[in-house]
Amino acid sequence: MKDDPKYIPALCVKEDDDSMSLNVLLAVNKSNWEDGNEVLLKVKEGFEGIFAALSEVSHVKENAREIEDRIFTAIISMCSLRILCRLRFVANNRKKPKQAIKSVLGEALSSLQQLPIKRLGHQLPVAESFIKEAKNVIKLADAYAKYQTQGRLKDLVAGVHHMKQIGKLQDLLDIIPNKIMDPSVKQNLVNIVTKVSRYWEAAHFLHRVARRHNLIRNMKVVLVNLPKEAFQRAAIDNYSRKLTSTLARISEGHQRRPNIDHLCRLIKTTERQADDQFAAQTKKTLREGKIHAEIQLIYYCELHASRLLLPPRIICSSKDACFLCNAFILMHGKMHMPRYHGRLYPGWRLPQIPYLKDLEQRFNVVLDNQIRDSLKVLLVRNSRTVYPDPNESTLLTLAASTSTLRTVGALSEVTGRGGRGGGGGGGGGGGGGGGGGGGGGGGGGGGGGGGGQRLVHHGIIDEELVEVNHVGAPNQQASSVSSEGIRTASLDSELEAGIVVTDDGIEADASNQHTSQLPPQNTQSQRSLSSQGTTTDANCKLLQGKLLLHSAAVEFEPRLYTAAKSLEIHLEYAITPTPRSAESTSSEDLGYGIEWLSAEEAREVLKEHKAAAASVIIDVDTLQDETTHELDEQNCVFLKAHGAVVKIFRQPLR
């Protein structure tokens, strides 16, 4: 599988009750019915190799390492071209060549050796470990360059993962003055290590989940092919639509008719030029437009809705969703996309399926509203807003793309004191909002980026893992934590600028305007939580020194906890009802506790951690990327942010 901008794949997962398996629905961007079929078959072949390895997983630990290695090998085989691109062994066709990993690591080693030991301070052990692992990665990179085999590439990826395991790489690089090592080189190194390491992490994660859930061992690929008529194109002969008349139609009944001359002056064009450009782009879209993979998946699920007892809820792609895909997914309201980059592609189109004409009509209303909002922004700012090209590839938590397989019961909540203990794990999803521009009918502008809409998301949880993702932003004081484990993301106002891991490094993802947060339609209603001593909504303010315990008995509603006015923690049990109970977790496992520690307790925990590093303490303030943490021996994890320390632990409740 390679990075081809013409054929971006997307997938979603659904449970097949008849065959007791998981179907992975797969699609790629298409301009016609036969377009992209070769790419689809190639991607399918790669997934089938991974699924074949997963089918060998069992509860027995004797051959666990061997099977996990097979999964890793299958992933490397499928993604080798993309891995080589990330390691800078081959150039990305759309971008300028960058320093290869050997060159970047060599510069980092040289820079560290110029620093006095005193300057490294408490980072000295990290620096020593990094130097050792970096030299090993350089050796592995040389070995691969001399003899390019899949086995050597696998060793190189594993070596990069070992280097990431050192932790605090960003903190170590920050010690190096910018005059010694360019900031962009530091960012590229962090980006390479983080993204390449993910291939090993994916194999490890899939293996651990497959050992717990039979369905993961029985997965198959279903290629999504919409009916031929879906790709039919509207006739463009004698088609002439003017921008001025379109804007007048959209504004009718909502606001005063826009002054076209004034609008044209603001965007530095004339009325005639605007009409000509709009007509030309509209005809080009009608003639060449593509149906994006995400949209094909939605239409496919709608066409087969009667047979989908447990329909997919999450769509994932090799790239973040574009502006129009994200707007459509929000309007549709039945699925969720983890992130979108906000760029508007004028060559985007919808399938032509009369049976689903209502989706097209509803989406036209959405676009009309967005165009009106964009016109208001243009008039308020009195100038055209130029957005930088967004980064379309960002790193997400592993668990964000998985489907629910667990069994659940409803939640009852009690408060009181409780010790540490074993039991079930918690998890969930969440995310921040992003940006967006405006446009429609083949024209317009877009920009921005960010996490997808905040919808309830349940997923598979590895009870021994905690997922953390921190997105920082200027002038931000609060963080939110949500998890399939726990994910943190900074809060901001409607104007958001975040830091995301991209192919170009860690960069500011600036956005001046949000896409409208549209209310989901036809979604399943959520039961409100009613428990003794709590409110019926999903928000809860933690009181310092007061412990909250939760148990699941019927259905758990995601909860948002706040502590110290600066930390928000979004917790979910990633479990959903299913007729299968063979692997269900007992009621003893379905519990957790959360506590904002008192100042004295917090000092004691930090003191113990500093002395023996026995506890898992996540410093939210310093996070710039997603990390995975195992719980400590007491099944606990601690979050430290803005002076507050919050303890979260698994708690048996019987």
TrEMBL record:
User: Would you say which domain of life the source belongs to?
Assistant: Eukaryota
Chain intervals with Gly residues compositional bias: 416-453
Q: Which InterPro entries match?
A: OTT_1508_deam-like (IPR027796)
Per the record, a Pfam family? OTT_1508_deam
- Could you provide one GO biological process annotation from this protein's UniProt record? snoRNA guided rRNA pseudouridine synthesis
One function term, GO molecular function aspect: box H/ACA snoRNA binding
Identify the GO cellular component terms for this protein: box H/ACA snoRNP complex
Ranges for the region named Disordered are: 412-455, 511-534
Task: Please state what the protein is called.
Answer: Uncharacterized protein
